[in-house]
Amino acid sequence: MIFEKDDILVMAGDSVTDCGRMYEQPPAGWRSFGDGYVSMVDGFLAALYPELRIMVANKGVSGDDILLMEKRWDKDVLALNPDWVSIMIGINDVWRQFDGLLMHVQTVDQQAFKSTYRSIIERTLPTVKGMILLSPIMIEQSNDNPMKKMLVEYAHIAKELAVEYKLIYVDIQARIDAFLQELNEFILCSDRVHPNNKGHAIIAKAFLDAVGFDWTRT
Amino acid sequence: MIFEKDDILVMAGDSVTDCGRMYEQPPAGWRSFGDGYVSMVDGFLAALYPELRIMVANKGVSGDDILLMEKRWDKDVLALNPDWVSIMIGINDVWRQFDGLLMHVQTVDQQAFKSTYRSIIERTLPTVKGMILLSPIMIEQSNDNPMKKMLVEYAHIAKELAVEYKLIYVDIQARIDAFLQELNEFILCSDRVHPNNKGHAIIAKAFLDAVGFDWTRT
Amino acid sequence: MIFEKDDILVMAGDSVTDCGRMYEQPPAGWRSFGDGYVSMVDGFLAALYPELRIMVANKGVSGDDILLMEKRWDKDVLALNPDWVSIMIGINDVWRQFDGLLMHVQTVDQQAFKSTYRSIIERTLPTVKGMILLSPIMIEQSNDNPMKKMLVEYAHIAKELAVEYKLIYVDIQARIDAFLQELNEFILCSDRVHPNNKGHAIIAKAFLDAVGFDWTRT
Amino acid sequence: MIFEKDDILVMAGDSVTDCGRMYEQPPAGWRSFGDGYVSMVDGFLAALYPELRIMVANKGVSGDDILLMEKRWDKDVLALNPDWVSIMIGINDVWRQFDGLLMHVQTVDQQAFKSTYRSIIERTLPTVKGMILLSPIMIEQSNDNPMKKMLVEYAHIAKELAVEYKLIYVDIQARIDAFLQELNEFILCSDRVHPNNKGHAIIAKAFLDAVGFDWTRT
Amino acid sequence: MIFEKDDILVMAGDSVTDCGRMYEQPPAGWRSFGDGYVSMVDGFLAALYPELRIMVANKGVSGDDILLMEKRWDKDVLALNPDWVSIMIGINDVWRQFDGLLMHVQTVDQQAFKSTYRSIIERTLPTVKGMILLSPIMIEQSNDNPMKKMLVEYAHIAKELAVEYKLIYVDIQARIDAFLQELNEFILCSDRVHPNNKGHAIIAKAFLDAVGFDWTRT
Amino acid sequence: MIFEKDDILVMAGDSVTDCGRMYEQPPAGWRSFGDGYVSMVDGFLAALYPELRIMVANKGVSGDDILLMEKRWDKDVLALNPDWVSIMIGINDVWRQFDGLLMHVQTVDQQAFKSTYRSIIERTLPTVKGMILLSPIMIEQSNDNPMKKMLVEYAHIAKELAVEYKLIYVDIQARIDAFLQELNEFILCSDRVHPNNKGHAIIAKAFLDAVGFDWTRT
Amino acid sequence: MIFEKDDILVMAGDSVTDCGRMYEQPPAGWRSFGDGYVSMVDGFLAALYPELRIMVANKGVSGDDILLMEKRWDKDVLALNPDWVSIMIGINDVWRQFDGLLMHVQTVDQQAFKSTYRSIIERTLPTVKGMILLSPIMIEQSNDNPMKKMLVEYAHIAKELAVEYKLIYVDIQARIDAFLQELNEFILCSDRVHPNNKGHAIIAKAFLDAVGFDWTRT
Amino acid sequence: MIFEKDDILVMAGDSVTDCGRMYEQPPAGWRSFGDGYVSMVDGFLAALYPELRIMVANKGVSGDDILLMEKRWDKDVLALNPDWVSIMIGINDVWRQFDGLLMHVQTVDQQAFKSTYRSIIERTLPTVKGMILLSPIMIEQSNDNPMKKMLVEYAHIAKELAVEYKLIYVDIQARIDAFLQELNEFILCSDRVHPNNKGHAIIAKAFLDAVGFDWTRT
């Protein structure tokens, strides 16, 4: 596994990452993990690798698009001196172009998404051991769905940047799509965006697989 | 893995199983899982074995000892027509003998524990494919602690019954003890009884290992 | 318009009809209408046809499928001695076959849906001036979506019964589909089932058109 | 209809406009519309003219007289760059002269009402396509009622300004009065000032009629 | 004054009498008086006639018309063995004929009002020293208002019965009307039915005048 | 009566005056009066002297001694441009010398009480028509009670100042003492300091008597 | 000390005993003690005599007079099979004769108090090792206070019964009176009936002294 | 006893001292004591030494380690001009080294603990009559427990400082350990850190013994 003793892992993102974490708690403190994939990742890392003493901090913020996340990057992420940073962002950048159509809000086009994402990466890389980019997801089986189509393009940007900067890329959407071959989207969530415990298990499993988690441990 | 298509798994127990599940929800319904190991087990079973369509129902009740659990067994467990039943019970049977010392409450001695446990098994076995017994746990590193000592004896009863009836037995305490070789008990809980997300990850992992969960799946 | 002086119109259905109405209020009383299409229908009928003094009662109940609605029909609907009854039902009969897949709940197949619906109609028709059947809706643009497909079949049953018994049939789904040619589903709701004020305006407009509401009135 | 593609319509006013809208929501966002005529106007405009993508923002504030509304005009209304602005104001300017008699509050006489209203119009007109003035209303059938009498005079000022500046004027009071020929005021509200769903349907219908809404659409 | 040592006075009525009294309190107990005229009557009777030790019990119930009040008469009023009973009822009997027009509720016509009122009097008189009838009130200055007109007729019935049975009749409406010669109705209440502290002072003063309260006491 | 048309009366004091008034309300506004003597005074003044249009503002603040009241005098009292000011203060100046004995708080001796009271009077007199001083009260029948004894001395200071500045002085304590000749203190309050409706009726009656209220009015 | 190993002590009474205990807790369970003298007695008994394992159950009920307490005696007290029972009752029997004067409630005269108290003793004595009677208290320094006078007589009845049946009698009032020689009543409570932590320390100390508690223990 | 007339005793510490005290209350005010040992100490000091009029202020703050306590020392403790200061600190300094292992928080080593403690003592001693140091406690019977071991070392530092500066040292841990010879830790608390009423009785008794409290008083 890529994590080493005493490593600090900060997991940044939007509401899919946030999952009701208590903001007034200190990082990695009681009830600071939310009840989504971050809590599972923290739980399994500690449970099976206790000797590594890895600190996991949830820094997802509900409603964030990449511009909002970029504004709090220094204070929320870099200030923790992380060894590893994961990012799962993009659904709101896309969603606002659909549900915000009658609100005339400023949206984030692909160019802005890529340049902001790049800026975040470049500000972070010099001080960390590595970054892990997770694809944003839409829990929708049809690839013809317009929002799914657009989201796939934004996810592709994340993938391109991961390749360019040699970062770990975790294709969560691919795992979701495989699941939807078997069962419908309502098993994982009610609005195609916010997963329940089953959806978060998919994300956590994919993440841990990607970082070399050894599941044969007990 | 032992579970087959459309199997129903009912997980019975006390507050360690309950974990804040919403009682007014239908079995396996929204927010019916609590936020402990049952939610993780359900999440991973659905996420990685969607084709099996396994139903998981949390039937833990906070405060239950084996006598209280036995009283609700028909209505809470057998009425669901489960294919598999897991049981994690015993901590309150033991704890009351310590924290209840000045309350003069009726406690459950080992004989009553064993006979009631046996009765539950015998009423259940004829209608299910199998049962899985989980050891109750105390998150305490010292084997000289009097309550830990007593709990180990109760856990041993569960193990004896598992052997006698050829049931799967999952030694959660052994996993906890291994963890406590590396890190102290406060990492897993604050009162040595109710685990946090890290403690529940240990339980869920042990359970899934015991039922033949294939972690190489994605 | 089909309604006459002093007519009582009872609008039955599920959560799309219910919309947060206060159950403890008397029929047609303060805050009894919910904040969906029933409130709009009541508002426009009273506002533009004050001389008719039409009473509108919301009898939607969140979570109802047709079996649950049938059980409360006498007490909730017929007891009010309605002149007209509208029904918008079916989404839960279908939805449970998707989101309830891992809950092993009893679902309502098309045969049961049709026979129960028929029973409701036959118990009602003798005492009313007429019935108005509204198609259940899914706010989903793709006709290939499996749940949409199934829902269309259930809606078709409602239509068949309307034809058979010569009832007014309002094809709400057709109006929704037309809207989705122009704008995406997130403009009307977040989960493809429960409409916001824009979605309810579509329903209310379709209903009022169907009953011969004269929009040139002021 | 007067509205064109991508137009922004800001509807300003007092509590009759506000209707419990959530102030912390972004303009045109979820639950930002209140549950009065603005929600109905937004609903019907979106439902029947989806291709126009009209944004509707509720900027009513409970308790506002014209002086209070004028103070927040830049920040609340002009800052949104509206194409169209509607105003329904005046009831509090009049009401305070009745219910505030023993509070010795500063009230707004007709001269101040007119000059402030004029100032608002002149600051707004250069940047918008048009303005729509709605008469304030009192739901009282007797024209001899002193407050009704005074309100009619204030409404007349709004009408004079509409004529002078060639703005659309919507005589809501006339519609209310017509209704009260048939049914009493308690059908529309309990305090003669704050309408229920029926009263708001009258306002919304009058507004939409005035802007050329095509009710034959489906 | 008509009250004598240790007399029990029960004041029955609707929401004008109730005024938020706490039902779970014993009669005449802490917070049992509501914050309307009953609290003032009790306060002044005790304050200025402490030697009489008069017990005052509020038995108003919000929403009551005379039929509803009649149903609880034995349990709520006679069971207290009152020496004196006051009644202020009728506004809901009339109001429902206006605000309930679209609810098709059973209303209380003048004949039913009179016969029920008479029945209440006849059941009460044999066991009490006397009864005091208060006119119901509408705080509306125009005698042409249809609801005011009708209420006056119902009040007249109360007066006729008072004359017939030689009971004290207190014409609260006359006091209200005199007030409205000087100040408008909004000074006394917002909805013309439920008085504020000023309106209740008028009622309390009228009641105490009618029972011979000696205001020169200190 | 001493009050004239359009007079503003501000009633200052401590919790006995405050009585749960809503601070966020404008002076003399809805629910601004509390539920004690101020509400009764306002009620009777408006009810029986509507032509005078007297404004009554409650400016009691719970917990205030004279030093705390003096600090808010400009903002709370003089800023309202009152014609008349009433003051009922002193119980906390005395009480703190009893219940605060173990808190080592700074207390207000008689000299400080008198000089601060004098300062308040002198700052107020030039801009008002008159001031009315009410004695603070302790609802305790024994004149040997040490706190009662001390309070009487503080009340005497208020009386001396009233004489010196020719202000109206209302001896509420004398009325309370007279009441306690007939009934015990628990009839008026539970803690000998905060009156219930009966106690407040005594205060309101005494105040209105002192200002020449004509109780023969109707 | 009189208590022996495994003794059960039930402490019965009114609100002075109750002190906010949680009724849904089992006897001697978490938060079952209230925050008054019972909690202190339980605390010191357990802290300094751990080897005795004494169970202490709070069975005070707010508002109880001796009649109400007698009605629940079997279920609340005897059902616990106590070895020792303490009773502190009487303040409400007396208080109601003062604060209930205008409520015409049935009060408990000395004869009824004595006979009911005697009945309770006689039903209890056969099954317990002993009973401890605590005087009810009024925290009032003047012996001329009418309620204090009456309470002293009721306390005397308790003392007489203690003598007659050779029970332990604890004169709490004497301790309170001694305290009031030094400090005033507001140091111990605000309403002369319900003590704060200081008042409860007096009660607990007196009780423990009376049962032979050895304060030299550590 | 060491305390003299009018002495002020400030009791500083962490959550064991805090015990839910209300921060908005003035020192020694109503509900300012929490429900732990400070409330008992205050209660017994006032109850049995009323003539000394000792003021007791609870200045415990939940979560404090010695660094956090040091930061608020001037404002929270010295500003009260205490005559005596007690300190019970250290459990969080130690606990964070166990439960904070995965949070990478700055912890307080023994050197920092001692130097900060020394600084607090030296800033305090010049202005007080004396200081009383209480050992922090862990309610754990095994001296082999790693956290207990470490805590004993921190407690030893407090003892060393007490010796060096000739302060009173109260070995609470010794009392707890003695108790645990007889009964298990769950009798005193659920998490081995926060005592219940029994645990606080041990602390209060030990403190009062240490300051020469005369338990033979009544």
Explain the overall architecture.
The structure is a homooctamer of 218-residue chains. In chain A, helix 5 packs antiparallel against helix 7. Chain A has one domain: SGNH hydrolase (Rossmann fold), CATH 3.40.50. In chain A, 42% of the residues lie in helices and 11% in strands. Chain A has 218 residues and is an alpha/beta fold. The first copy, chain A, has a 5-stranded parallel beta sheet with strand order 2-1-3-4-5, with helices on both faces. Chains A and B meet through helix 2, helix 8 and helix 9 of A and helix 2, helix 8 and helix 9 of B.
Topology of helices and strands:
The structure is a homooctamer of 218-residue chains.
Chain A: E1 8-13, H1 15-18, H2 37-48, E2 55-60, H3 66-71, H4 73-76, E3 84-88, H5 91-99, H6 110-124, E4 130-134, H7 146-164, E5 168-170, H8 172-180, H9 197-210
Parallel strand pairs in A: 1-2, 1-3, 3-4, 4-5
Helix pairs in contact in A: 2-9, 5-7, 6-7
